[in-house]
């Protein structure tokens, strides 16, 4: 902890927030695509990899994650699926990820901002990493506008 010039105690808590605006990342329909983030807003541990688009915190514990993804759905779709995955995309049973999905059999889902699943992910502080994945049944484009921005956050809430 440090004390600032106003006498406030500032704890050293691992916090990350990255964003993307108007980068037009293409997504192929039916494919889980890793979300790419263009700007690091805050990274107190320097755990963000701009080349791999993933967060590797060096402090073990439970991290609260969440955010929003802006998507241009060029045709109306039946589902949007977003996952926060630990140590790569979990193709088995999904136990190492938080996954949210919006479904409608009538192809009525269109352009908008969709929430990234919010929840806790346990990280070992020694190599575990977190990535975000996006999927729809039709081709789409992520981060298609300047506002609202897409963003992803992670914050240590309980060290282990």
Rg (CA only)? 17 Å
- How is the main sheet built? 7 strands, antiparallel
Helix content: under 10%
Count of separate DSSP helical elements: 0
Distance between the termini: 18 Å
Low-pLDDT segments, ≥5 res? none
- Helix/strand structural class: mainly beta
* Secondary-structure element order, N to C: EEEEEEEEEEEEEEE
Mean pLDDT over the residues: 90
Q: How would you describe what is shown here?
A:
- With 160 residues, the protein is mainly β.
- 0% of the residues lie in helices and 52% in strands.
- It is built from no helices and 15 strands.
- It has strands at 2-3, 9-10, 15-20, 25-27, 33-34, 39-43, 48-49, 54-55, 61-72, 79-86, 97-103, 112-123, 130-136, 140-142, 150-159.
Element layout with pairings:
Layout: E1 2-3, E2 9-10, E3 15-20, E4 25-27, E5 33-34, E6 39-43, E7 48-49, E8 54-55, E9 61-72, E10 79-86, E11 97-103, E12 112-123, E13 130-136, E14 140-142, E15 150-159
Antiparallel strand pairs: 1-2, 3-6, 3-15, 4-14, 5-13, 7-8, 9-12, 9-14, 9-15, 10-11, 10-13
Key phrases:
160 residues; mainly beta; seven-stranded antiparallel sheet
Concise summary:
This protein is an all-beta fold and 160 residues long. The protein has strands at residues 2-3, 9-10, 15-20, 25-27, 33-34, 39-43, 48-49, 54-55, 61-72, 79-86, 97-103, 112-123, 130-136, 140-142, 150-159. Helices cover 0% and strands 52% of the residues.
């Amino acid at each position: 902890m440090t004390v600032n010039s106003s006498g406030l105690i500032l704890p050293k808590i691992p916090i990350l927030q990255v964003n993307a605006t108007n980068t037009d990342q293409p997504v192929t329909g039916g494919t889980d695509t890793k979300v790419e983030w263009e700007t690091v807003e805050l990274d107190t541990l320097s755990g963000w990899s701009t080349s791999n688009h993933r967060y590797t915190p060096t402090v073990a514990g439970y991290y609260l994650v969440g955010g929003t993804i802006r998507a241009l759905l060029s045709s109306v779709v039946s589902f949007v699926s977003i996952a926060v995955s630990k140590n790569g995309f979990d193709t088995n049973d999904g136990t190492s990820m938080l996954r949210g999905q919006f479904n409608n059999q009538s192809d009525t889902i269109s352009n908008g901002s969709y929430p990234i699943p919010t929840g806790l992910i346990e990280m070992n502080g020694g190599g575990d990493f977190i990535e975000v994945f996006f999927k729809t049944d039709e081709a789409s484009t992520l981060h298609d506008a300047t506002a609202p921005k897409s963003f992803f956050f992670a914050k240590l809430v309980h060290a282990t």
